[in-house]
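Hi U.,

Before I forget, here's the chain from the pilot set. I'm dumping it here mostly so it's searchable later in email.
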Amino acid sequence: MPNNVDFTRLSQLPTEVVARVFALLPKEYMLPFFESPVFKGVATNCYYSKLVIHWNPLPIDESLTYMSYKEFEAFASDAELLSVIPDIGSIHLFSTGMLNLTPEAVTRLKLFNQLNASYVFSLTQEPELAELSQFGNIHDLCLSSSHLDWGSLVLPSRIKRLEIRINANLHATSYSLLQYPDSLESLSLSGVNMTPEIFTSLPPLLIEFSIEELETFSVSAFNQMTFPPGIKTFRLKSSYDTALDITGIALPSTLRHFYLSSYELKSLSGVYVPPSLSSLTFSVHLLHEFDLTLPEGLETLNILESSLNSAAVNAIVFPQTLISLGIEYSQLTTLSFVPKLSQTLERLLLAGNPFRCNRPQYIRFPECLKVLSLKKVPLELYSLVFPEGLEELDVTETGLTLEDDVYPSSLKTLVLNDKRHQYRKS
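Structure:
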């Protein structure tokens, strides 16, 4: 919190400059300026520019202002704050709706430039969502309910992002009645079974598409889908006990990012990824061999919580275009694959693998590496050469300390015991 503010010197700056500076500061820094006739208006607008309204607000982001329902109702009825029009508002609703707030609060919600709304209903509660049509400024909408009647759901006409989470779908037969607004750019469906009816008319501007917590998945039904021409990101996640089979899946040719998560999937055989992909992320616990041809042009590859061992990783042909590689919490026992990596690699994450070897090994890392995580790697078994140019290094639970004289002079951040330290070589 700033003390002894020199309001006279600040008043010499253009208001636009002050507003830009305020926008970069934590919200609590605005409070002293409320007492200044010159800066009160700018500080007030900045303080209330981004609101989070929650039934139990827990401030976790200092760039946001948090309010309970009652606090927001008081804000909306405060005569001194009527001229303040918040830019972005996020309201989280539990077993209730926005129209249950005071009329002043409802009016203020409709004035947000961008409103993000999240509804959570209990397992036995049937949601009343007719109010959505009254809020044309809704940008992001998240619905969590087991009684969602797809046929009666009318979505806001300018919505950009829609997330639907269902635990027990009691209205599955009304899938085909849901009409997506043409403005929709991101769609996430969780707990919604893969049936042709719900995917017959994806919105034309869709960029991101996620299907999560699947209990059934049909490759043939998926391959019959007509994806919008601008689709760039696709996420596929099965439920914990579902044996997902994606053999023969045909991913859209425009796809740039593909995320796959499945506990039961054991092989990637028969999966073709388009050459357009720039990033791939796999979280597949039972995956024990990586029988997938990676496209030249791929820049990011992440393999998380898999059963891949060192032999399986040594067999992977890594593209020379790779910039970031993560093989974390898998079954790697050696670093023998590292010399195969492109010398242009900038990011390498190897945390959580059960590394071991019978004799010390010499490892040289790619010369362009800037970020390296060796968390839980027994470094006493290796003779390592850290590249000059390395800027961030995680050596949590490796035996190294802040005092060890093994780090390159270029290092800026050293992570020890999961805590980040600013590093400067003495």
